[in-house]
User: Which sequence fits this backbone?
């Protein structure tokens, strides 16, 4: 097929927006509150994609382990810190705005499916001036427990919210590829995101090195 899908969904962290420094600051705040050593940004971003709780659990595992009560307490601390520091040092990746413009000009409806909590997703997109571009924004808690990526449900809900039609998804992690494929749609991944090694082995239908390749790659799906 050589035409564009009518709907393109995007992951957020590591795909449209480089949130690495703000997420790492929130994780390191929680580690500090627990008297743990901090972790480098490059290590923390490998823990992103499955939601904040899973990210923190991995960071605690890497610094001595944890018990469930401690995880709950530090998760609250992480979320409080992130709420107050959501867009201190986060920016969209090079070419993202131009690519979203190009898709909108071609009549493509855009959506977001992220495992970031919805109460953080909307303000972050708002502060970056991106929110108005998306017809549907689905966060990690929008559909309730167990309905985050790699479940296909948030992808299906995004497609419905965008009016239905042929869709594709763009992400940066195995959660994105798995969710898209489980929903029966193709997935592209961005090499500049948070999967530092093995992007070519995620099983995606294509890999973009820069957003100036996105439209052409979507046309070839
Ligand atoms: O794991 C998260 O908190 C969010 O990650 P995502 O935007 O890549 O889904
Ligand atoms: Mg991501």
Assistant:
């Amino acid at each position: 097929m050589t035409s564009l899908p009518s709907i393109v969904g995007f992951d957020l962290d590591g795909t449209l927006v480089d949130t690495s420094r703000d997420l790492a600051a929130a994780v390191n705040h929680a580690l500090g509150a627990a008297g743990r050593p901090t972790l480098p940004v490059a290590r923390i971003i490998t823990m992103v994609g499955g939601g904040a709780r899973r990210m923190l659990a991995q960071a605690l595992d890497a610094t001595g382990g944890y018990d469930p009560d401690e995880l709950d307490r530090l998760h609250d601390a992480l979320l409080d810190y992130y709420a107050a520091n959501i867009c201190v040092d986060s920016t969209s990746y090079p070419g993202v705005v131009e690519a979203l413009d190009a898709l909108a000009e071609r009549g493509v409806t855009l959506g977001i499916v992220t495992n970031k909590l919805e109460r953080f997703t909307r303000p972050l997109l708002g502060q970056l001036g991106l929110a108005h571009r998306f017809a549907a924004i689905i966060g990690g808690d929008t559909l309730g427990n167990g309905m985050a990526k790699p479940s296909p449900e948030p992808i299906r809900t995004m497609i419905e919210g965008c009016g239905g039609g042929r869709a594709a998804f763009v992400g940066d992690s195995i959660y994105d590829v798995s969710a898209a494929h489980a929903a029966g749609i193709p997935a592209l991944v961005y090499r500049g995101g948070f999967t530092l090694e093995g992007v070519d082995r995620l099983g995606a239908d294509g890999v973009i090195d820069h957003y100036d390749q996105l439209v052409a790659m979507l046309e070839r799906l």
Summary: The radius of gyration is 17 Å. The mean pLDDT is 97.
